[in-house]
Amino acid sequence: MIEIKHLYKSFEDKDILSNINAVFENGKTNLIIGQSGSGKTVLMKCIVGLLIPDKGQLLYDNRNFLGMGKQEKKIIRREMGMIFQSAALFDSLTVLENVMFPLNMFSNKTYIEREKRALFCLGRVNLTESKDQYPGEISGGMQKRVAIARAIALNPQYLFCDEPNSGLDPKTSLVIDELIHGITEEYNITTIINTHDMNSVIGIGEKIIFIYNAHIEWEGSKDDVLTSPNKELNNFIFASDLLRKVKEVEIQNNEG
């Protein structure tokens, strides 16, 4: 579990995050949504330690991350898995070698054990047959699946996903969502996802935090998001005519 308490961050006297309080639970897909510039990316960077908040607390299973020294933070970072917006694979390495990369860096296991673990992770995302291919030889969706396999190679307790469906078609996005959700549940990981994808919000949003003007404007689940009366959330969620019609039908069904 990750807890954020009274977290603030500003740049050049402009508040980017103001009094953020949130709890991200184990075994759940926790989504952070908001318009560009709302502060959600800064929040993610603060959580993983890429930015230092001006004040507040950041607790990893009751361990105060912001109060730790370099060595203690390094231990926490080894418990993290990251899925970047652009898969961020190494073009010169095969699929298998990409998944083995964090194992080679941080694991003391033998080569055979590291390879076995990497193959297991590739099997978990249904890509074992592509192990000898290079990133440039596989599709964007397959690259994201390799990124997921690499992210879970070290058995992370915490998984961070930055726009994991960016650039993918709806069908492939659904596959990625289901993989992330399934892995989160299976391994009881604390997963935090930054996303603009409303299909992800409605599909796997077990805990959703909506950032607006530097603060948490709304929080709830996928079951609440379509019927929330919050004006700012509605303006964000129902920007498309299709989703607006979905809400109208939802309201009509409830009234009926």
Outline the secondary-structure elements.
Layout: E1 2-11, E2 14-24, E3 28-33, H1 40-48, E4 55-60, E5 63-64, H2 70-77, E6 80-83, H3 95-106, H4 111-124, H5 140-151, E7 158-162, H6 170-187, E8 190-194, H7 198-204, E9 207-212, E10 215-220, H8 222-225, H9 231-237, H10 241-255
Parallel strand pairs: 3-8, 3-9, 6-7, 7-8
Antiparallel strand pairs: 1-2, 1-4, 4-5, 9-10
Helix pairs in contact: 3-4, 3-5, 4-5, 5-6, 6-7
CATH class of the domain at 2-79 and 156-255: Alpha Beta
- Classify the helix fraction into a percent range: 40-55%
- What's the gyration radius in Å? 19 Å
In one word, what is the shape?
Answer: globular
Task: Write out the CATH superfamily name of the domain at 2-79 and 156-255.
Answer: P-loop containing nucleotide triphosphate hydrolases
Please tell me the CATH architecture of the domain at 2-79 and 156-255 by its name: 3-Layer(aba) Sandwich
> Hey, roughly how much beta strand do the residues contain?
15-25%
Q: Give the overall pLDDT as a whole number.
A: 89
Q: H/E element string?
A: EEEHEEHEHHHEHEHEEHHH
Q: Helical stretch count? A: 10
Model regions low in confidence, pLDDT < 50 over at least 5 residues = none
